[in-house]
Design brief:
- This protein is an alpha+beta fold and 175 residues long.
- 36% of the residues lie in helices and 26% in strands.
- It has six helices and seven strands; from the N terminus they run βαααββαβαβαββ.
- A seven-stranded mixed beta sheet has the order 1-2-3-4-5-7-6, with helices on both faces.
- Strand 6 and strand 7 form a beta hairpin.
- 26% of the residues are buried.
- Bound molecules: coenzyme A.
């Protein structure tokens, strides 16, 4: 499937796009239960809202008649505001020199396995290279199935660190 990959900077303010991205985010998340609306919003802010608002130039959506998937990123993970909202980041600080950028990606459940995720990551990598960013990383569950997706895209550095007794897999790719 060859979807249209659009920079989020071009569609910022389009409420329909934001609503569809938001829906994909909550559908894809393993966390389903929230004690109230404000906890749900904080979760959205942590992994998506912060990125869309502060780094729209590093966010991409795949579209056909609706949004099929999105990727968001920061170019430099060493960021005190991010450390505050995502305290686990600090555990991996020693790898940020080599792999400074990080991303979060999700595709609509009906659009998975069709190449959309790969297209989104490639669009992001192209942009990061124009910014002279040397490397990119992701974090996922130590036994997550999506590990294969990143391996195929060339994320060939792997390290596991523990945060609050839970293992987190860090995967890095040099650009
Ligand atoms: C992970 C995800 C973003 C990948 O996007 P995608 O569009 O499905 O992936 P692509 O079709 O571009 O896949 C590229 C390759 O990775 C493999 N792959 C993708 N997702 C995989 C998965 N969950 N398990 C194993 N392999 C996977 C595909 O088999 C494909 O290999 P191929 O080219 O040899 O066929 C998407 O499947 C998704 O949103 N999954 C659910 C949420 C999630 O895991 N998000 C990432 C959180 S870290």
């Amino acid at each position: 499937m060859s979807a249209l990959i659009v920079s989020y900077a071009e569609v910022t303010g389009d409420e329909m796009v934001l609503a569809q991205v938001r829906e994909i985010f909550f559908e894809s998340s393993t966390k389903k239960d929230f004690k109230d609306a404000s906890e749900k919003e904080a979760f959205f802010e942590k992994y998506l809202g912060y990125y869309l608002r502060n780094h729209p130039e590093l966010a991409w959506v795949a579209q056909e008649d609706k949004v099929l998937g999105y990727v968001v990123a920061v170019a430099d993970s060493q960021d005190d505001v991010l450390y505050k909202i995502q305290p686990h980041l600090k555990t991996f600080e020693k790898y940020f020199g080599q792999y400074p950028a990080h991303l979060h990606i999700n595709c609509h459940v009906e659009s998975r396995g069709k190449g959309v995720g790969g297209q989104l990551v490639k669009a992001l990598e192209k942009q990061l290279k124009t910014m002279n960013i040397q490397g990119l990383h992701i974090m996922t569950g130590a036994d997550a199935l999506n590990k294969k997706f990143y391996q195929k895209l060339g994320f060939d550095f792997e390290a596991i660190e523990f945060f609050h007794d839970s293992p987190i897999l860090f995967m890095g790719k040099s650009l």
